[in-house]
Inverse folding.
């Protein structure tokens, strides 16, 4: 597993305003894609476990791109927790959670973001000592107005909303006091990946990295 950078912040949520959500069909694309994202200023990269190439992509990025903080997304079983950490994942993201999955993530030794979409889920996880959460599916579950309504009664919870977020509405989320960053795919167009147009992806990543909470 790749060693961690000495300057790594206490939370993966503080690395950049956007965490790219990557779906890869070919392991060969993993390293140049990660290099483009890091060069553009987005070091935290979530590789989703939605394809057979995912674990290989995690291993490739962890081994060849030390500047990247690569994590596994769409983690839904304890087995996937183990496989992801073994492959070099430095954080875990789930679309939802169960007690079994949460126990496995807590025992993994790496940071994790369990997915929530209701107030009751947030309160339950706060009881378990979890304060950094994924809000998913963000737009369908109430969007920025919903998260804004949680900031008053539950200020200790910090969120990375994902789902339906693009360059046009990301600033709406990033202005919220309880949103540390957002997750999205808009800086990784499928046609750019297919064409190996890493320069275009780097440019889009740089634009995403420049998003400001006052924007």
């Amino acid at each position: 597993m790749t060693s961690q950078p000495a300057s790594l912040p206490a939370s993966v949520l503080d690395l950049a305003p956007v965490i790219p959500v990557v779906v890869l069909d070919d392991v060969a694309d993993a390293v140049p894609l990660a290099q483009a994202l890091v060069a553009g200023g987005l070091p935290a990269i979530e590789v989703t476990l939605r394809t057979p190439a995912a674990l290989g992509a995690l291993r490739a990025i962890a081994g060849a791109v030390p500047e990247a903080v690569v994590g596994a997304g769409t983690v839904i079983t304890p087995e996937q927790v183990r496989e992801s950490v073994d492959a070099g994942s430095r954080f875990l993201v789930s679309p939802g959670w169960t007690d079994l999955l949460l126990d496995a993530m807590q025992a993994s030794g790496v940071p994790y973001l369990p997915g929530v979409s209701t107030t009751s889920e947030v309160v339950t996880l706060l009881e378990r000592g979890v304060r950094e959460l994924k809000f998913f599916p963000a737009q369908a579950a109430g969007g920025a107005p919903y998260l804004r309504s949680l900031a008053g009664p539950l200020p200790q919870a910090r969120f990375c909303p994902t789902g339906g977020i693009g360059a046009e509405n990301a600033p709406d989320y990033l202005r919220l006091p309880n949103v540390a960053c957002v997750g999205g795919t808009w800086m990784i167009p499928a046609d750019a990946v297919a064409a190996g147009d890493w320069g275009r992806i780097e440019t889009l990543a740089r634009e995403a990295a420049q998003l400001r909470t006052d924007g």
Summary: Residues 2 and 63 are 6 Å apart (CA to CA).
